[in-house]
Amino acid sequence: MILYQLRCAADHEFESWFRDSSAYDAQRKQKLVTCPLCGSPEVEKAIMAPALGRGTRKAEEPAPAAPAEEAAPAKVALMSEKEQALREMLKAVRQHVEANADYVGDEFASLARQMHEGDVEKRSIYGEASPDEVRALVEDEIEVHPLPSLPDERN
Ligand SMILES: [Zn+2]
């Protein structure tokens, strides 16, 4: 892209972007380059813009895709707020269970079964159980719940 400082027949000066110098020549011949103030197609190059090729100039180039790009971050912000709320909820559930139940580690499945069968007094416990142990407990209608874990808390 190239920025030209242009001047019309009525001496209005304005700037315009072109793909390259031949694009400017072609558009000028077809009278597509017109003064934004008076609409005159009689334009000529004033001076070569001194900022040609500099990043700051290029950044000012109008970008048609800008509105869509502005809309996207807001949507992401909403998602992360929801995720944050969900994280807090899961954390609260975990903290409640950990504060009110006994940690029994891998004894969980056998203890849960003994409580269910009345061999051990019922109380709230939490610990680890393999998928097979959990399936067996559920099949015997022993109510167990997976304890939610947060991705960054897994070791
Ligand atoms: Zn003009």
Account of the 3D structure:
It is built from five helices and five strands. The protein is of the alpha+beta class and 155 residues long. It has two domains: 2-59; 74-153, no CATH class. The strands form two sheets. It has a three-stranded antiparallel β-sheet with strand order 2-1-3. The radius of gyration is 35 Å and the shape is rod-shaped. Bound molecules: zinc ion. Zinc ion is lined by residues 8, 10, 12, 35, 37-38, 40.
Q: What is the number of domains?
A: 2
Low-pLDDT regions: 68-72
Number of DSSP helical runs = 5
* SSE order: EEHEHHEHEH
Structural class call reads alpha+beta
- What's the total number of strands? 5
User: What is the rounded Rg?
Assistant: 35 Å
Shape: rod-shaped
Q: In whole angstroms, how far apart are the ends?
A: 52 Å
Helix content: 40-55%
Strand order of the largest sheet: 2-1-3
Beta-strand residue percentage: 15-25%
Bound molecules: zinc ion
Q: Specify the biggest β-sheet.
A: 3 strands, antiparallel
Average pLDDT over all residues: 79
Layout of SSEs?
Layout (H helix, E strand, L loop, with lengths): L1 E7 L4 E6 L2 H9 L13 E6 L6 H5 L6 H35 L1 E4 L2 H9 L8 E3 L3 H9 L16
Parallel strand pairs: 4-5
Antiparallel strand pairs: 1-2, 1-3
This protein binds zinc ion (ZN).
Zinc ion (ZN) binds next to loops.
